[in-house]
């Protein structure tokens, strides 16, 4: 370990930042660790916000660690505070309360924030976003009140909320500008399955339209002129990176804070991890907005912050729970030759994607976690498979590997 490192500052008290902080102690780092986080709550993992926290029986928020854990590990938490500026030469961050904190190593783990609707649709009472525990509390109150919900965006957040809202008896309209659900991340076959499942659950889905006017009678006007019930509007149309405080350093790109395979920015000693990191991705760079990346990239980063050069490499993997549907996606699940294993009209199947050499490059599983466990290994290893055996559910999946 580099003994010249005495003070490590982590900006962003979310999943990745917290993982780095505790990881540093686990790796034997004895110097100062300071975490600065804008939210007042103890750091927590966000998947619970659109799942457990919107269920009828609301469990308490589960923080990642208790106060005593931070004290025990001598990790100094500054919650409810934001970093507003960074001096890379002086190695110092400035907080919104005027305090400055010096660092030898800086880890940027500030995540992303929801992309907003245009100003013409601004309404702090009716329009909801879902990123924080406070957002989840507001949305939950609307669901409990039985308000009609218009969901803008047919991605993971929108679909998970649609299930929760229907379970609480709300009228739900889902508005998607594209022509299918989760179009950026899943196969068309899976989009069709999701469409049918959510329609069967009572969701009114409108494709190829946008919200254009929030009417005072509790409705929403769409771009095709139709009017839908919308006492509450949940917006899930993507995110933008939290680069405030770092934007002037010359280390950002359109996606976030640009890093090399080791999580290192263009400035020595300044790193980024989690959603904010614009990582090497295919032939370019991009954010990986998943729980697994916030954990595994952060764990790997610890070694690099302490002086190693350990590149991070892992296929993208995420899951989404939508009522009875467990969806999992690994790798590039929208390109390549499609092989379906199982009945795409049933409630459990997987869609594999193969390259020209029949190597598995991606997979989406619907209520088929065992398939996914194998697919994750295959995508990582670039395993070649026999297409016919892959599609044959009578034969064990692992027998498809060549
Ligand atoms: C509702 C919801 C459900 C999800 N469900 C799933 C799922 O099922 N599966 C899955 O794989 N992924 C899921 N995700 C994605 C996953 O939660 C994220 O990828 C993960 O939280 C990223 O962690 P992070 O630490 O990078 O960012 P975050 O957890 O967002 O933490 C960043 C923190 O930095 C703070 N911050 C920002 N700017 C500053 C600043 N200047 N100074 C100080 N603090 C700052 C922010 O307030 C925030 O608290 C979900 C996300 C959401 C919102």
Can you walk me through this structure?
Helix content is 23%, strand content 28%. With 402 residues, the protein is of the alpha/beta class. It has three domains: 7-113 and 239-305, 3-Layer(bba) Sandwich (FAD/NAD(P)-binding domain); 119-235, FAD/NAD(P)-binding domain (3-Layer(bba) Sandwich); 324-400, Enolase-like, domain 1 (2-Layer Sandwich). It has a five-stranded parallel sheet. Helix 1 (15-26) runs parallel beside helix 7. It starts with 6 loop residues before the first strand and ends in an 11-residue tail after the last helix. 43% of the residues are buried. Bound molecules: flavin-adenine dinucleotide. The site of flavin-adenine dinucleotide has 37 residues, from helix 1, strand 2, helix 2, helix 7 and strand 22.
Brief sketch in words of this structure:
With 402 residues, the protein is of the alpha/beta class.
List keywords for this structure.
402 residues, alpha/beta, FAD/NAD(P)-binding domain, Enolase-like, domain 1, 3 domains, five-stranded parallel sheet, 23% helix, binds flavin-adenine dinucleotide
């Amino acid at each position: 370990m580099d003994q010249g490192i005495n003070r490590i500052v982590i900006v962003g008290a979310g999943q990745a930042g917290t993982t780095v902080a505790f990881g540093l102690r686990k790796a034997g780092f004895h110097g100062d660790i300071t975490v600065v986080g804008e939210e007042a709550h103890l750091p927590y993992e966000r998947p619970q916000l659109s799942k457990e926290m919107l269920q009828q029986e609301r469990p308490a928020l589960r923080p990642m660690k208790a106060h005593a854990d931070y004290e025990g590990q001598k990790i100094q938490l500054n919650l409810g505070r934001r970093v507003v500026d960074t001096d890379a030469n002086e190695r110092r961050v400035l907080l919104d309360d005027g305090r400055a904190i010096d660092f030898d190593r800086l880890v940027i783990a500030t995540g992303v924030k929801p992309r907003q609707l245009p100003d013409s649709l601004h309404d702090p009472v009716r329009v909801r976003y879902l990123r924080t525990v406070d957002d989840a509390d507001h949305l939950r109150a609307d669901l409990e009140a039985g308000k009609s919900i218009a969901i803008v965006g047919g991605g993971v957040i929108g679909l998970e909320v649609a299930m929760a809202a229907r379970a609480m008896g709300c009228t739900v309209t889902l508005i998607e500008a594209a022509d299918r659900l989760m179009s950026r991340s899943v196969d068309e076959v899976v989009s069709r399955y999701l469409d049918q499942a959510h329609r069967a659950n009572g969701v009114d889905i409108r494709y190829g339209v946008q919200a254009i006017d929030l009417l005072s009678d509790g409705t929403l006007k769409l771009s095709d002129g139709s009017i839908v019930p919308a006492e509450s509007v949940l917006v899930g149309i993507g995110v933008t990176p939290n680069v405030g405080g770092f934007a002037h350093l010359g280390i950002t790109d359109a996606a976030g804070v640009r890093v090399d395979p080791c999580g290192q920015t263009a400035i020595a000693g300044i790193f980024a991890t989690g959603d904010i990191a614009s990582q090497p991705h295919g032939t370019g760079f991009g954010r990986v907005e998943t729980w697994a990346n916030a954990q595994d990239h952060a764990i790997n980063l610890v070694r690099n912050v302490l002086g190693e050069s350990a590149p991070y490499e892992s296929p993208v993997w995420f899951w989404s729970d939508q009522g009875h549907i467990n969806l999992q996606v690994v790798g590039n699940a929208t390109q390549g030759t499609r092989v379906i294993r199982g009945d795409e009209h049933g409630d459990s199947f997987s869609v594999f994607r193969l390259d020209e050499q029949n190597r598995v490059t991606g997979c989406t599983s619907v209520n088929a976690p065992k398939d996914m466990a194998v697919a994750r290994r295959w995508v990582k290893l670039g395993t070649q498979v026999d297409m016919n055996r892959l599609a044959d559910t009578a034969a064990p999946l692992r027998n498809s590997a060549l």
